[in-house]
Every structure is written in C-alpha cells, then in structure tokens.
Amino acid sequence: MKILSGFRILFPLIGLAALAGAWMLYSDAREFVATATVTEGTVVELVRSRSTDATTYAPHVTFTDAQGRTHAFTSRTSSNPPAYHAGETVRVLYRSGSPEQARIDGFFSLWGGALIVGVLGGVFVLAGLGMVLVPLLKKRRAARLRNTGRRIEAAFQGVEHNTSLTVNGRHPFCVISQWQNPATSRIHVFRSDNLWFDPSDYITRAQIPVYIDPANPGRYHVDLSFLPALAG
C-alpha cells in the first residue's frame, strides 16, 4: 500500500530531523550553562497560558545582575500544577549581553525542550524502523518455514477485516483457515498476513496451504502465493 510505503520513509526522516533538533537544543543549553552567570531571582507571579485542552502556569521572575540592574523574564516552560509559587526564590542563569534571555536553573527549564523533542524523534525513528523491520522479519520467517516446516492443507473458512489495524480509514483483509491436528485432535485456526485488497473473489479452492513448525504449530505461514499481486 502506497500510504504505508510513504510512512516507512517519512517517519524516519521526521524522527531524524527531530533528533537533530534535540541535539541542537541540548548543545545550546549546555553552552548556555557553561557561560552563564549565576544569581538569585524571585518569582513575582505565575503567567497563565491557555490551550484548547489545558491551562498551564509559567513563573515570571525578576533578578538583579552584577551591575545592579533589575531584569525580568518569563520562563519558557510552564506546567500544571505550577512548579513554582509567587514569592519563591530561585537560582537564575543569565548572560551579561542578553539578560532578558535568562533561565531558571532547573532541569526542565534547561533541558526540557531537548528531552521532549528527543523523545518524539526517537518514537518516530523506532516507528519507521518497525515498519521496515517487521515485514522483513516476517519474510524471513516465511522463507524458513517454507524450507524447513511442514506443509499442511487447512480448510478455508473465509475472509475477515483485521480491525486492529487502520490506515487512512481502511482495515486490511485476512484469510482465515483451520486445521485439525491428527496427532492431538486439536483445532488450529490460521490467519494470513494482512492484504490490502479483498481476496474473496480469487479464492476458489477449499484448502489453503499453510507451513507450520512441527514442534510448534503456533508458528506458521499461510501461503497465499496463488493470489494475484496488488498493482502499484
């Protein structure tokens, strides 16, 4: 499916871009901490910020620099409940040339942006890699079962939607078959890999070939190579 193929490329690119941005934020914060002057400030008020689903509070801080001049700034980070309260004394880091860009000396104030962007980047990269690696691992397992597994003929039961997966508002199809193990008399139900077209009209046989691991029939591959390939 073209959309999935696009996601396999897009997700890692977004993730790598986010990780690069996280590294830049981290490097900037590290350089700021290394060159900043430390002083004490006072939280004079909490600035409320509203979004569509939440209200957060950012501390507004005043401090006096080494030259005796008073400055004020509002923290870049906000939270609910508030991380600080009015009248609280906090450590402040600032640069002499740009005191208006001062920051509270706290973990989230300094490193929160890099942490959030880095986590999001990691999620996108892992999601993209999963979209690539999972199909490859399935192909390897299927090839191994075709070479070393036992071929059985399972009774075709029908075609179902895999409602646990949705892409662009669509569910893929699965071919369902079942087989009774003559050695144990137990019934095994097999579900094929996802198909992005309805194969019902192309299944004219009563039996579906399935390759199973003789030691563990729960490891199997439903062979649908008799179906036509999806164009595109």
Question: What is the CA-atom radius of gyration, in angstroms?
Answer: 29 Å
Number of domains: 2
Kindly report how far apart the N and C termini lie: 8 Å
Shape: elongated
Report the top-level CATH class of the largest domain. Mainly Beta
CATH architecture grouping of the largest domain: Beta Barrel
* CATH topology category name of the largest domain: OB fold (Dihydrolipoamide Acetyltransferase, E2P)
Beta-strand content estimate? 35-45%
Class based on secondary structure composition and strand pairing: alpha+beta
Taking the sheet with the most strands, its summary is:
5 strands, antiparallel
Catalogue the unreliable spans. none
Order of helices and strands: HEEEEEHEEEEE
Care to count the β-strands?
10
**Mean of all residue-level pLDDT scores:** 91
The number of helices is 2
Please characterize this protein's 3D structure.
By secondary structure, this protein is of the alpha+beta class. It has 2 domains: 2-118, Beta Barrel (OB fold (Dihydrolipoamide Acetyltransferase, E2P)), CATH 2.40.50; 149-222. Helices cover 33% and strands 35% of the residues. It contains 2 helices and 10 strands. It has a 5-stranded antiparallel sheet with strand order 3-2-1-4-5. Strands 8-7-6-9-10 form a 5-stranded antiparallel sheet. A hairpin with a 2-residue loop joins β4 and β5 (98-104). α1 packs antiparallel against α2 (107-148). The longest helix is centred in the middle third of the chain and has 42 residues, at 107-148. The radius of gyration is 29 Å and the shape is elongated. The model has no long low-confidence stretch (mean pLDDT 91).
